[in-house]
Amino acid sequence: MEKTSRKRPTIRDVARVAKVSTATVSRALQSPELVTENTRKAVFDAVTQTGYSVNTAAQMLRRNRSGTVLVILPDISNPFFSEILSGIEKIATHEKLTILIGNTNNEPERFTNILENLRNGRADGALLLNGVAPPADMLPEHTPMVTISERIAGYTLPHVGTDNEAAAYDSTQHLISLGHSSIAHVTGPEGNQLTNDRRAGYERAMRDARLSGNMCEIQGGFEFQDGKEAATALMRQPTKPTAVFCANDESAMGVIRGLEGAGYNVPRDYSVIGFDNVSFSHIFSPELTTVHQARYAIGVKAMEVLLALMGGQVTKSTIFLPHKIIERSTTLPNP
Q1: Between the N and C ends of the chain, which has fewer C-beta atoms within 10 Å?
Q2: For residue 118, which of 71, 56, 86 has the smallest C-alpha distance?
Q3: CA distance 230 to 237
Q4: DSSP-derived 3-state class of residue 128
Q5: CA 330 → CA 111, 179, 245, 249, distances in Å?
Q6: Taking the alpha carbons of 237, 242, 248, 253 in that order, is the dihedral positive or negative?
């Protein structure tokens, strides 16, 4: 029985169909802006017709690139990051780049080990979601890096995320607009930049409403148990707040369960607002009022900024994407 085989299309096949030279095909694929629109169309039509596939690995080798980008997370189990990762993945896939996810688990040594991929050339750039700066002098100057969600204080790395202070201000203002004047804030963990920004927004909103004397800040964190413990502290306040702004959704859910466990009703006794609009905030009972961050769009934009840096472009240092208040069932007007 005679065997049949089909050869893989080559760049010469594309050149023949497009009726241009192989050099023109290479130029159109690698730097399309250098050829005319008609030539570019002829080449890409020929690519489709022949089924030619660019050897991405060989291209990267010629350009001294690995074709891999690092995405560094503090806790991969946190549902907050899922939509951001989806946005990153969309752009990376389109650009035929590989994503290498590094989970630091909030451990400095693991963070350093993950960064080795940048130093030894196994990755071309990094997206930092952990809010921690690389150790001094570990990486070459101008290593392409972008921070996402959490800024790194004192560093000028490009940043893509939400204006956390403005969003916290709007959250507190939302509670004020419902007639609440005694509003508590359950903070995030101390030393965290998100905690600092969201606290600042809360305090500014209370000052602007001339409610500085009613401010009540309770040390919390970003986890469910942190919220439950904050609920205990909340109930011990000499003056009972009627509303609570929490630093994130998970802690807000912990606050609600803690209050309910003590016999209080949310939102009748306490209005509660969270921050992030994570996927399960709308299936929690009661459905959580929260701040929506455009996390998918943040992931997309951050990856685009990193690509620009990797291409040698200078980019805007800080990009804030819009946020909005999602009003659900955990807030009511103050009777």
Answers
A1: N
A2: 71
A3: 11
A4: strand
A5: 38, 15, 11, 12
A6: positive
Residues 6+ apart with CB under 8 A from 330: 252, 256, 266, 267, 271, 272, 273, 274, 286, 287, 288, 289
Task: Return the amino acid letter for 124.
Answer: D
Q: Angle at CA 149, nearest 5°, toward 279 and 171?
A: 65
Residue ranges with strand state E in the chain: 68-73, 98-103, 125-128, 145-148, 159-161, 183-186, 216-218, 243-246, 271-273, 290-293, 318-320, 323-326
CB 254 within 8 A of CB 225: yes
Separation of first and last alpha carbons in the chain: 88
With bands split at pLDDT 50, 70 and 90, how would you rate the model's confidence at 116?
A: very high
Residue of 314, 299, 311, 294 lying closest to 92 (CA atoms): 299
| CB-neighbour burial class of residue 174 (10 A; exposed 0-12, middle 13-18, buried 19+) | buried
Residue of 42 and 170 predicted with greater confidence: 170
**For residue 99, what are its two tokens?**
């994503």
DSSP for 270-298?
Answer: -EEE-SB--GGGGTSSSPPBEEEE-HHHH
pLDDT tens profile 301-322: 999 999 999 888 877 789 999 9
CA distances from 84 to 39, 92, 178 (A): 37, 12, 32
Please say if the pLDDT value at position 12 is more than 70: yes
Whether the pLDDT of residue 1 is over 60: the answer is no
Helices 22-30 and 11-18 meet at what angle, rounded to 10? 100
Residue written as token pair 């995030």: 188
CA dihedral 94, 98, 103, 104 (to 10 degrees): -110
Dist CA 279 CA 79 (whole Å):
7
Residue 251 C-alpha from the chain's centroid: 19
User: Using CA atoms, how far apart are residues 319 and 302, in angstroms rounded to an integer?
Assistant: 9
Q: What is the pLDDT of residues 37-93, one digit of tens each?
A: 888 889 888 888 888 766 544 454 445 467 899 999 999 988 899 999 999 999 999
Would the pLDDT of 227 be above 90?
Answer: yes
Q: For 74, which DSSP code?
A: S
